[in-house]
Design brief:
The protein is α/β, with parallel strands linked by helices. Helix content is 32%, strand content 15%. The chain has four helices and four strands; from the N terminus they run αββαβαβα. The protein has a two-stranded parallel sheet with strand order 1-2. Strand 3, helix 3 and strand 4 form a beta-alpha-beta unit. The longest helix has 19 residues. The chain is globular and about 40 Å long. The model has no long low-confidence stretch (mean pLDDT 96).
Length: 162
């Protein structure tokens, strides 16, 4: 799962033809006009990997910006049902926090709260027997990165979320 505001084009490319890896990315797309310009919804994998690449590609810029309700709705209606059907052995998260509230429009401009990142982490722990690894990818607002990281670690530790 990749929730960095920028599409994970390198990760998608590596696993695009692989049916053993499910890649799900939630990102700002803006009809291909937001960096890196990849990650269209119709990019679903190829060959044996067809159907194992899922792009939740938001378009519309930041008016209004995507936030908790959109991310949680995507998790409820797309990410978790597909992930449960795939039944992974482990969940790896490209945990970039540049979708977090606090990043200016050119760097993301979304308004996802730290609490929402914690809730998404908690949901992912229902997969793969709780084997979830988060790899910090980035973000540009140190306070937002710290708050989101803390919420995710708290979820990983099994602490009660607000």
């Amino acid at each position: 799962v990749d929730w960095d505001v920028h599409h994970g084009n390198g990760t998608q490319q590596v696993f695009y033809k692989d049916c053993n890896v499910l890649y799900i990315s939630l990102h700002r797309y803006d009809d291909g006009n937001f960096f890196p310009g990849s990650g269209a919804p119709e990019e679903v994998g190829s060959g044996p990997g067809e159907g194992f690449n899922v792009n939740v590609a938001w378009t519309g810029g930041v008016d209004p910006p995507m936030g908790d309700s959109e991310y949680l709705a995507a998790f409820r209606s797309v990410v978790m049902p597909i992930a449960h059907a795939f039944s992974p052995d482990i969940v790896l998260v490209s945990a970039g926090f540049d979708a977090a509230d606090g990043h200016p429009t050119p760097l993301g401009g979304y308004k996802v709260s730290a609490k929402c990142f914690g809730h998404m982490t908690h949901q992912l722990m229902n997969l793969a027997g709780g084997r979830v690894v988060l790899a910090l990818e980035g973000g540009h607002d140190l306070t937002a990165i710290c708050d989101a990281s803390e919420a995710c670690i708290s979820a990983l530790l099994g602490n009660e979320l607000d």
